Amino acid sequence: MTWIDVAAVESLAPGKCRTVEVQGRRFTLLNVGGEFHALGDRCPHRGVPLGAGYLDGTKLYCPLHGWEFDARTGACASRPDQPVDSYPVSVENGRVRVLA
User: Fold this and answer.
1) Which of 67, 84, 86, 99 is most exposed, with the fewest beta carbons within 10 Å of its own?
2) In this structure, are strands 54-56 and 59-61 parallel, antiparallel, or unpaired?
3) Beta strand pairing status for 25-32 and 35-40?
4) CB burial class (10 A; 0-12, 13-18, 19+) of residue 17?
5) In this structure, are residues 27 and 6 in contact, taking their beta carbons and an 8 Å threshold?
């Protein structure tokens, strides 16, 4: 595993999420109240990008069928047996990095 630089801090406002693709890997990058988190970008239900979803507090909703995920851990409230991967995140010198 290695730290991957994925975005500038200012590129994602609090309460927002988006897909980032770096080195052939796709992540959902989330800014939950100023704290960054990274999840796998594919919803386990239909494979759509979770980065296109809706973030409400700590809840991330899939854009297709509304499955609910914990934005901090990847746990799925809609289907507890279908979590998405969660990755450690660090912020250094105004850059967000993901350990993957």
Assistant:
1) 99
2) antiparallel
3) antiparallel
4) buried
5) yes
Residue 50 lies in a domain: yes
Residue whose C-alpha is closest to residue 33's, from 53, 56, 50: 56
Mean pLDDT of 17-22: 96
Domain total in the chain = 1
Phi, psi (deg, nearest 5) at residue 9: -55, -45
Distance, CA of 45 to chain centre? 16
- At residue 46, the pLDDT reads 85
Q: Which string of b and e fits 25-59 if b means at least 16 CB within 10 Å?
A: eebbbbbbeeebbbbbbbbbeeebbbbebebeeee
What tens digit of pLDDT does each residue of 67-83 get? 999 999 999 999 999 99
Q: Residue 58's domain is classified under what CATH number?
A: 2.102.10.10
| Domain-embedded: residue 7 | no
Task: Report the chain's mean pLDDT, rounded to a whole number.
Answer: 96
Domain limits at 76? 18-31+41-91
